[in-house]
Design goal:
This protein has a single domain (about 1-200), classed as Metallo-beta-lactamase, Chain A. It is built from seven helices and 14 strands. It has helices spanning about 35-45, 60, 65-70, 80-85, 95, 165-175, 195-200, and strands at about 1-5, 10-20, 25-30, 45-50, 75-80, 105-110, 115, 120-125, 135-140, 140-145, 150, 155, 185, 190-195. The protein has a six-stranded mixed beta sheet, with helices on one face. Bound molecules: zinc ion.
């Protein structure tokens, strides 16, 4: 089960993914409005084990600390995103959010690491470029891409740690190697597939 919850003024796609057999679940990018996200979790009676961050920008992390306390879940992020999570100037929260955000993840992952929840396995694919520690999360044939890859677009690269050259390489050599049929769930906007983006994304 995957439910998209659009939150905050930047319209971030937060996702709840649950293992239907065990009800164990993950929350990806809880950017804002924790009460809205909690309502969806309750509706599914999901037991959230991990709060997983595709990257550390303020619009994607605004509800992390509230949900961590209420859900007793562990925060998972790339080890290369650590400085951004801890620095409100790097993560833009001091500029775009009401409050400055600074925290550390409970688990820092590297490329190709895996973590299980219920009977599902998350595989982490580091995709730097939008930020230094940007990553995508693959569960079954579903890929959560954050602000790395969008439907017919890619993430901006003008903020701290960004590089368009590195972002294009991450997508071309790591994501476009995946199967055409894999569903793409981006951090903003509608979903897509790897096959569609490989053929139609104007940046390639
Ligand atoms: Zn971002």
């Amino acid at each position: 089960m995957i439910e998209k919850i659009v939150v905050g003024t930047f319209g971030v796609n937060c996702y709840l993914m649950m293992c239907d057999e065990t009800k164990e679940a993950i929350i990806i990018d809880p950017g804002a409005q924790p009460e809205v996200i909690e309502r969806v979790i309750k509706k599914h009676e999901a037991e959230v084990k991990y709060i997983v961050l595709t990257h550390g920008h303020g619009d994607h992390i605004g509800a992390v600390e509230v949900l961590k306390d209420s859900l007793n879940a562990l925060i998972v992020a790339s080890e290369d995103e650590d400085d951004m999570l801890q620095n409100p100037n790097y993560n833009e929260s001091s500029r775009i959010c009401d409050v400055s955000i600074s925290f550390q993840a409970d688990k820092y992952i590297r490329d190709n690491d895996v973590i299980k929840f219920g009977k599902k396995t998350m595989k982490f694919i580091t995709t730097p470029g939008h930020t230094k520690g940007g990553m995508c999360i693959l569960v079954d044939n579903h890929l959560f891409t954050g602000d790395t890859l969008f439907h017919k677009s890619i993430g901006r690269t003008d903020l701290y740690g960004g590089s368009q050259q590195i972002l294009l390489a991450s997508i071309a050599f790591k994501l476009f190697n995946l199967d055409d049929k894999i569903n793409v769930y981006p951090g903003h906007g509608p979903k897509s597939t790897i096959g569609y983006e490989r053929k139609k994304n104007p940046f390639f």
